[in-house]
Amino acid sequence: MASTINPVPDFYIREIPIFGRIILAPMDGVSDLPFRSLARRLGSAISYTEFINAIDIVNGHPDLARRVQYAEFERPIAFQIFDDDPVRIVDAAQMLLAYQPDIIDVNLGCSAKCVTNRGAGAALLRDPRKIGEIFSNLTRSLPVPVTGKIRLGWDDTSLNYLEVARTIQDNGGSLVSVHGRTRVQGYTGSARWEPIREIKQALIIPVVANGDISAVSDIDNVFQLTGCDAVMIGRAALENPWLFSRLDRAEVRADTVQELMVEHLQASLAYYGDDRGIVLFRKYAKRLLQPYELPTEQMKNLLTLIDPNEFMNGLNLIFQQVRLAQQN
Ligand SMILES: Cc1cc2nc3c(=O)[nH]c(=O)nc-3n(C[C@H](O)[C@H](O)[C@H](O)COP(=O)(O)O)c2cc1C
User: Fold this and answer.
1) pTM of the predicted model over 0.85
2) What counts of helices (H) and strands (E) characterise the chain?
């Protein structure tokens, strides 16, 4: 008689079993339903939505329903929210429960001025007391686990990552993910992974390492260096979503890239409609085709097409050319 083998979870977010240790990072304008689904099928262990403004939630923004839409197979699904108001954020999170998320994640890392100027995102790192209040309020009033995504601090003179991570844990948070840069760094310089090891050693709850992971060797190095429960990959997933299957881009055949592009384009068209779907797909196409170093003019021609059929034909031609070049 065939026996059923139950896979063993790699770790838990409170009571939620997590299978896999590589996760697609939340990215505004990138980690939408079509891209998350693709990453999830390739091995990403959790789906995080793009961040959602708590003010938009309480005001019933018309785009809200789209931002919280997900496919069942994406579970566990984390809705990421941002706010600077410890009371409103609870109202917003409670409203989101209607969409049945598995996890609510709080953004404490966004460096964009439009977010930090109002004291939200990475600006909260300057006010650990408020972080405590936000997590205490959320964890006491929500049935689902609450997690936080942080940076190392505001700037190099205020590297308060240990205090912030402990505050999240002490106020009921169930996981901390850490982008190894400060707010002032933005995306410049390199991510520092050593502080993430300190956080992992200081906490009981799971810790996820993030920042500048762009190859399988980086994944291995980060695990070895930090002892983290999982790694989170952002920008590099655009050029190589196969990282979630532990493949470097050079290992991925052109046929596989083409199949994925066609599948992703179709999903984007179905989700957004033809006009918007093709425009929004361009940024993914550009990054996926980048390794082939196509002539600028050819890329421009492809990426300005607005008819999906013409785009598919253009893609076919490009891949014929790529395969020919690879045979020679
Ligand atoms: C276009 C873009 C949008 C992002 N949007 C979000 C977001 O909505 N929420 C968030 O927590 N982080 C956001 N981030 C930060 C990423 O999640 C991640 O922490 C950062 O890019 C560092 O990881 P990486 O080096 O793997 O890209 C965004 C990053 C980029 C590049």
Assistant:
1) yes
2) 14, 11
